[in-house]
Structures are given as structure tokens and as C-alpha cells.
Specification:
By secondary structure, this protein is of the alpha/beta class. About 20% of the residues lie in helices and about 30% in strands. It has a single domain, classed as Metallo-dependent phosphatases (Purple Acid Phosphatase, chain A, domain 2, 4-Layer Sandwich), CATH 3.60.21.10. GO terms for molecular function: hydrolase activity; metal ion binding.
């Protein structure tokens, strides 16, 4: 069995401090093989917020695979045009499209936030080719995972069609602040809710514990409750035979 912890949208700078403390303990208790954070570490990409993000990052169970979200680029600043990802690279991860390999799992991160878009995302053909190449080089039988900020449904991600045909078994995203699990084009898609932000959208703060075993993906949604966390929905979805 492979266990992945999936967090998104902590929005440090608009966060609940008590939740951050209990979040680290709750994620650590799951003993994940990989921790994935699908962006929006900060609220407005300020240095002070990235300092908080770094302090959280180093406490999460390792290895950690992470990508930037739309809030991790400066909103109104010359940096938006000249060096939009510099602060993310400095404080979080120098590689905007990292690859993580643990036994039984090959995971690829995608940078889905172009500097010329304010909120919606985009995946290019070059990125899709890189994903397919990483999966082609993966050991036979590995679970193939893609992580990016924007979910591959609705209108928020251009280029999602080719991405969904790149061979991923599991795709992790955030951005919406609302946890979700569905199968899209043969790929199991898990969207994590906001993990620490005050900017909730009708559901409590949450993160998702994902386990994959015997051809099934089981997602346990963990919701903040007082000074701790409780188990919410438990959703099981079969891996698609065409993806795996």
C-alpha cells in the first residue's frame, strides 16, 4: 500500500495559527510515503509569508513534492513580469516541476500558473511531453501521479485534455478550497481543500490522506475540528485499467 498526504492552499498570511500546528501533527501521524502540497502556500507572495511557508515545509513528513499556485506569484509588482517565481524558488523549491520517486510511485509536479494569467492555469504540450517521458522511464507497475495547482475540469485549466491523456493514474490539485474526488478521462482526480486558510468556502479546513492498494484509491478527508482533526468522507475509487 502507498500512502500520500495531499495538502493545498494554506494561504499563510491569511491562516489560522492553531490549525497550522495541529496540521503538522495530523499529517505526520499518517506516515505518508510522499507529502504533496499543490500550491498557494502564501496569500500575497510576500517575503514574510514565504518565511512562514518555509517553516511549515521543513516540518512536514518528507519527501515533499510541491508546486506553486496563483497566490505564490506577486500580484501587482514588477516581479510579476521579471521574476515571478523567484520567491517560490528561494523559499520553497528551486525546481518548479519536480519529480519524486519512492518505492512503487513516480510523481511529477507541474507549474500550471503562467505569469500572464491572474487566476486560471495552463499546461503546455512541452509539459505534457515531460510528464509522458517521466512515466515512460518509471519502473514497471509504478503508480503514476501528477500534481498541479489547477484541477483539470471546469474552465480553469487550458491544455487539460492532453494532460489527461499523458498516462497518469492519479492527479492531485487544489485551488478551489473544496475537497473533491472524481474520475476524469480515466484518471482519478483528488482536489484538496484549504489546509490552513481563513478563506474557507462552506467546508472546514481540510487535507486528504490517499492510499492506493490492490487497484483501489481510498481518500480519507481530514477536517479541522477545534484544536484537532476529525475524519470526514471516506471515498474509494478504482484505478482505471486504461491508466494503470
Amino acid at each position: 500500500m502507498i500512502v500520500v498526504a495531499h495538502l493545498s492552499d494554506p494561504h499563510l498570511g491569511a491562516h489560522d495559527g492553531e490549525t497550522v500546528e495541529s496540521l503538522v501533527a495530523d499529517v505526520s501521524a499518517a506516515a505518508p510515503a510522499l507529502t504533496v502540497v499543490t500550491g498557494d502556500w502564501t496569500m500575497r507572495a510576500r517575503v514574510s509569508e514565504f518565511e512562514l511557508a518555509r517553516a511549515l515545509l521543513v516540518r512536514l513528513p518528507r519527501p515533499v513534492l510541491t508546486v506553486p499556485g496563483n497566490h505564490d506569484l506577486p500580484l501587482v509588482s514588477p516581479l510579476r513580469l521579471l521574476r515571478p517565481y523567484d520567491r517560490f524558488r528561494t523559499w520553497i523549491c528551486d525546481d518548479l516541476e519536480p519529480i519524486a520517486r519512492v518505492p512503487g510511485l513516480t510523481a511529477v509536479g507541474l507549474q500550471s500558473m503562467p505569469r500572464w494569467r491572474w487566476k486560471d492555469g495552463r499546461v503546455t504540450r512541452r509539459q505534457v511531453a515531460a510528464v509522458a517521458g517521466a512515466f515512460g522511464a518509471a519502473p514497471r507497475g509504478d503508480l503514476r501521479l501528477v500534481a498541479l495547482h489547477h484541477p483539470p475540469f471546469g474552465r480553469g485549466l487550458a491544455g487539460r485534455g492532453p494532460l489527461l491523456r499523458a498516462g497518469a493514474d492519479l492527479l492531485l490539485a487544489g485551488h478551489t478550497h473544496i475537497p473533491d474526488v472524481r474520475t476524469v478521462g480515466g484518471t482519478v482526480v483528488v482536489v484538496a481543500g484549504t489546509s490552513a486558510s481563513h478563506r474557507t468556502r462552506g467546508v472546514p479546513r481540510s487535507w486528504s490522506r490517499i492510499s492506493v492498494d490492490a487497484g483501489m484509491v481510498t481518500v480519507v478527508e481530514r477536517f479541522s475540528a477545534g484544536s484537532g482533526w476529525r475524519t470526514g468522507r471516506l471515498i474509494s475509487v478504482p484505478l482505471s485499467a486504461t491508466a494503470s
